[in-house]
Design brief:
By secondary structure, the protein is mainly beta. The protein is built from 2 helices and 8 strands. The longest helix is centred in the N-terminal third of the chain and has 6 residues, at 14-19. InterPro entries: PPC_dom.
């Protein structure tokens, strides 16, 4: 495992930036171990909801975690608004960095992650491949 600390800058899209991390480092599997920071707004898909929930205003990232594969990231985060109300869910495009996002990534050089259809869940789910197989 190789660790990769990142700082995202104002205006960057959180999900889009993390989607490009693997290719930029020649890796095909990774995890977001933790992330904190602030957003100008956020788009989350809440548990069981078919559509995005949009949050506006200054938002703090309390936690960020997930997996990174060449097929795209699978990220969840907990957020707090300016009044301290907390909400969490699946990270969608449209989460724009306000001041910073400080993120720790673990790259897994002996593995390749893929997202493939899963009949039980109805979603594309993580499939782990070892490079030695």
């Amino acid at each position: 495992m190789k660790t990769l600390p990142l700082r995202l800058m104002p205006g960057q899209d959180l999900r889009a930036t993390l989607a490009g991390v693997l290719a930029g480092h020649g890796a095909s599997a990774g995890f977001v171990v933790q992330g904190i920071g602030s957003l100008l707004g956020a788009r989350l898909r809440l548990a069981g909801a078919p559509d995005a929930t949009e949050l506006e205003g200054d938002i703090e990232i309390l936690t960020l975690a997930g997996s990174l594969s060449p097929d795209g990231p699978h990220l969840h985060m907990a957020l707090a608004d300016a009044n301290g109300r907390v909400m969490g869910g699946h990270v969608l495009a449209g989460c724009t960095i306000r001041t910073t996002a400080e993120i720790l990534i673990a790259l897994l050089p002996d593995h390749r992650f893929a997202r493939e259809p899963d009949a039980a869940s109805g979603f594309d789910e993580l499939v782990v491949h070892s490079h030695d197989c």
